[in-house]
Amino acid sequence: MEIKVNNLSQQISVFNQYMTEIRDVTVQTDSMRFRRNLERVGEIMAYEISKTLDYEQHRVSTPLGVSECSMLSSQPVLATILRAGLPLHQGFLNYFDHAENTFVSAYRIHHNNDDDFDVEVEYLASPDLEGKIVILCDPMLATGSSMVLAYKALLERGTPRHIHVATIIASEQGIGFVQQNMPAETTIWTGAVDKELTSRSYIVPGLGDAGDLAYGSKQ
């Protein structure tokens, strides 16, 4: 069974406003607004993913009586790839505020400043993931290599029951790579799907470097 892809930009909602501002070079100059828009997208994705989770009934005492309410039967684990994933992660955490958290450091190593590079996972901080639902965030799903390597790193902490991959913009190639290299118990959530990758594996039209736009350029 092929991994399902949910492209939220295909729905008409305020989500599209945030996606437009995230891509707009004139809006991107305001890094605080850029980070907040990533966070807003995370909040909307969290709400959409919450519809797929399991709930149980609880009786809640109000000042005037007792109400039957639905609550999550278990919390997902929120995982993010540093550093660009932090604002998106915060959006999820705003909604799943009781969730455990996982952080993965993955980066590109370019060889001789050319187009050839490897992706290396350097650091992992995570709770036990065995049998849990994990939401794995990274703003850009370009080649898909970082996402797949992050997933493999998470397996050191147990095998999740289901993985939700959450990304702002995905390339068609990146989606294909995830579908080929991650388990069937995976769902992809994205704000847009772009067709092209540059020779250095940046998405076109994309939005640029999400980490630099959120936190400033790096050496």
Q: Which labels suit this protein?
A:
single chain, 219 residues, alpha/beta, seven-stranded mixed β-sheet, three-stranded parallel β-sheet, 14 strands, 33% strand, globular
TL;DR?
This protein is an alpha/beta fold. Helices cover 32% and strands 33% of the residues. Helix 1 packs antiparallel against helix 3 and helix 3 packs across helix 4.
Summarize the structure in words:
The structure is a single chain. With 219 residues, the chain is of the alpha/beta class. The protein is built from 7 helices and 14 strands. It has helices at residues 15-23, 25-28, 31-50, 86-95, 145-154, 172-181, 210-215, and strands spanning 4-7, 55-62, 65-72, 77-82, 100-110, 117-125, 133-137, 140-141, 162-167, 169-171, 186-190, 193-194, 196-197, 203-204. It has a 7-stranded mixed sheet with strand order 1-11-9-7-4-5-6, sandwiched between helices. Strands 8-10-12 form a 3-stranded parallel sheet. Strand 13 and strand 14 form a beta hairpin. The radius of gyration is 18 Å and the shape is globular.
Number of strands: 14
Largest sheet: 7 strands, mixed
How much strand content do the residues show?
A: 25-35%
Roughly what is the average pLDDT, rounded to an integer?
92
Helix content: 25-40%
Rounded to the nearest angstrom, the distance between the terminal CA atoms is 42 Å
The value of Rg in angstroms is 18 Å
Detail the poorly predicted runs. Answer: none
The structure class reads alpha/beta
Following the backbone from N to C, one meets helices and strands in this order, namely EHHHEEEHEEEEHEEHEEEEH
Give the number of helices: 7
Global morphology: globular
- What spatial order of strands do you see in the largest sheet? 1-11-9-7-4-5-6
